[in-house]
Protein 1
Amino acid sequence: DVKVTQSSRYLVKRTGEKVFLECVQDMDHENMFWYRQDPGLGLRLIYFSYDVKMKEKGDIPEGYSVSREKKERFSLILESASTNQTSMYLCASGTLQGWHGYTFGSGTRLTVV
Amino acid sequence: AQTVTQSQPEMSVQEAETVTLSCTYDTSESDYYLFWYKQPPSRQMILVIRQEAYKQQNATENRFSVNFQKAAKSFSLKISDSQLGDAAMYFCAYRRSNDMRFGAGTRLTVKP
C-alpha cells in the first residue's frame, strides 16, 4: 500500500523555536507538496517541489522554508515559529500526470505556544 | 489564479438518503482535472472521485457520482444511500499541471 508518512501527528513548540516537519513517500513521485489546513480556509499551498533540490513557492510561503535533498523526503521548516503558525500541516506527493490526484499524509497538528 | 468555492460549510443527511455537495470553480483553462476528497476524523485525505474536464460523461464510483457542468464551472458530488461512514469533511479540488486548488470544505453529518 502506497504511503506518505509524516513524522509527527501532534507537535507543541514554543514561540521562536525552529521547527522541522518531515515527510517521506515511497511511491517514487516526482512532486511533493506542503499544505496548511485551517477551518474555513481549506488547504493552502505553502511550497512544492518537482525534483530533488528544486522548490517553488505556493500561496503562503512567508515564514516557511523547505528542503528536498532526496526524492522521497520533503521537509518543511519554520525558521522561528509564531503563534499564527498554529495549524494542521499536510504533506502530499503526486506524479506529473494531472489525472492522478495527490496522495496525502495523515497530517501534523502543530501548536505554537 | 484559479479559485474553488464550496458554498455549504455544513450539510446533514439521514442514513440511507441522498445528499449533494456543491462546488464551483473559476478558470480560464479548458484542460484540467477535478477531484473530490474525503477527510474523516482520522485526518487521512482519501480520493473519492475524479473527473477530466474534456470528458462530458459524469464520473461514477459506486455510491458516489458527480454532476459536471463545464460551462457553468460546477462540479457537485452526489452521495447515494448515505452511510454513517460517509461522515467527514469533503473537499473539492481543481488541478492543472502542478497547481491543485482546494475549496474550504463541507462538513457532512450523517444521522442514524
Protein 2
Amino acid sequence: AQSVSQHNHHVILSEAASLELGCNYSYGGTVNLFWYVQYPGQHLQLLLKYFSGDPLVKGIKGFEAEFIKSKFSFNLRKPSVQWSDTAEYFCAVTGGSARQLTFGSGTQLTVLP
Amino acid sequence: GAGVSQSPSNKVTEKGKDVELRCDPISGHTALYWYRQSLGQGLEFLIYFQGNSAPDKSGLPSDRFSAERTGGSVSTLTIQRTQQEDSAVYLCASSLKPEGTQYFGPGTRLLVL
C-alpha cells in the first residue's frame, strides 16, 4: 500500500520568504505525484504534477517541485511567498494499479503580510 | 468549461437518517472518485468508478455507505443510518482517463447531529 508523509503540519512565513514543503512517499513502483492546494473556503486545486520526464516540474503561481526518486521525495518550493499563498497544501500519489489518490496529512501555510 | 459540481453544498441531518450526495463530473470524464475529508482522518478515498467496469469500493468504511453512477455520468453517494462520525466534507473528483489528473468539486459538508 502507498503512503505519503508531510512532515510540516503548520508553516508560518513572512512575505518574500522562500518556501519548501516536504513530501515523502512509500511505494516501490512507478508513481505519479501531485501537489494540490486548498485556499480558505475554496475547493482543492491542482498546483502541479509529475508523471514522467524532467524531475523538476513547474506549476501555477510560481510553484515548483522536484522528484528525487532515490529519496522517495517530491518537495514543493517557491522562492518568494505572498500573503495570497496562505492555504493548505496536500501532497498526493497514485501508483501501480491504484487509480485513487493517496494524500498526505497536509501542511497549513500561513504567510504574514 | 464547467467543473465538477456537487449538491447539496451543506447538509445537516439527524443521527440515523439516510442521506444522498450528488456529483456531476466534468463532461467526457470517464473516471469518477469519491473522497472524504475530516479533521481526524484527513483526505480518504472512498470509491472509484471507471466507465462500465465494476467500481473499486475498497475505501468504503462500512456497509452503510454505497454509491452508484448512472449512465457513466452523475454519481450518488448514499449513507444509510448516519452516525456522528460520518460528519465530514465529501469530495467528488473526475478525470478524463483513469491515470489522468483528478479535478475536484467543491464538496458537500455533512453534519450529523
